[in-house]
Hints:
Blueprint: H1 22-32, E1 37-41, E2 45-53, E3 68-71, E4 74-80, H2 82-103, H3 109-122, E5 134-142, E6 145-151, E7 157-159, E8 162-165, H4 169-176, H5 186-200, E9 209-217, E10 225-226, H6 229-249
Antiparallel strand pairs: 1-2, 1-8, 2-9, 3-4, 4-5, 5-6, 6-7, 9-10
Amino acid sequence: MGSIGTGYDLSASTYSPDGRIFQVEYALKAVENSGTCIGIRTKDGVVLAHEKLVHSKLLVPGSNRRIQTVDQHVGMVGAGLLADSRHLVSRAREEAVNYRDTYKSPIPSKMMAERVAAYVSAFTLYSSVRPFGLSTLIAVMDHEGPALFMVEPSGVYYGYHASAVGKGKQVAKTELEKLKFETLTARDAVKEAARIIYMVHDDAKDKEFELELTWICQESGGKHQVVPAAIAEEAERLAKAALSNEMDED
């Protein structure tokens, strides 16, 4: 019996004969159609970057940000459906508030990842809901140091030194694997993230984009903040110069 056919992709609670859940696989396709997101864990913090595609010239620059602050020490960015991302951020904020109210301390990194992943996983268990069309990067700075997690639409999560999701993830991962995370600083990671985002952006197929950059590091006082304008502008300038040099060599 084949797994491609009527019935097996109508519900997230239905397995195909070969053990696949097609609704989750379709959710991954929604992620692959989104702008690229990058997370880099360094020795002194975590940097998040997002290629926010601009679908209309009428949009106000800086609006509809994809990278959001969950708690003072937690940041999140998702590749996929924007509405799903906002819903998941709201849920993560509730988890952070509940933990702080109960234990009188900020939520630890692994606890945040576990609770977000459990919530995402619940949407793959019932026929009355659909899976999140979203892969999420979670950056945290707690008493144990910086941490970076990625949560998939299936609810599985992993801890990473660096990760990329979205349409340019394969090229981005190849570049990320070249970095030396033991010596990399947050400032250096901002430049690398900007360079990789400009590298994976396809001018021929994609529309214009805005580069979003945030970090949690010692320089930001352990708080999730937008990268200062001067540092972000310098990173973009270097990224454009590197891209221009590569095009000249080709």
